[in-house]
Amino acid sequence: MNSAMHPFKAGKWMAALVLATALPTAFAADNNKPASPVATSTPQQPLPNPAAEQALKKHFQAIFSAFEGKTAVPDAKNFTEEFNKQASPEQLKQVFAQVHQTVGDCHIAGQMRSPISYIGSYLLQCDKAFVPMDIAVEERAPYRVHSLLIRPSYNKP
Question: Is there a contact between 117 and 99 (Cβ–Cβ < 8 Å)?
Fold first, then answer.
């Protein structure tokens, strides 16, 4: 892919953390016994958590507003300690400005609904390209942002 089609070159922008979520898997305790239907079922999803879902929406709106340059980047208390070790609010501001300069003004084109209340995937439709953005908050209160991934943009058809 040439640089004209891929505006984010290595070293020129930073995704704050890679979204990683492990889902529990059930295994049979004794390999000599046949597995029960529960042990061979698909991984169970966490129960819905309306508080986590509300926190996710609130954090995404704050981050999107900062991405668009309409408000300041949320302060460090909105992010986990591990996130803050990887990216400061000032670094996020720089990333947002650089990406926004590359793709132009954006609006939310869609949201991928997830059965997991604390993970969200959004598609931003910008003047020059589409930008996928993933965000995750802690499973339990205080529901701080623990990962944010701004994926490389792709050109509009």
Answer: no
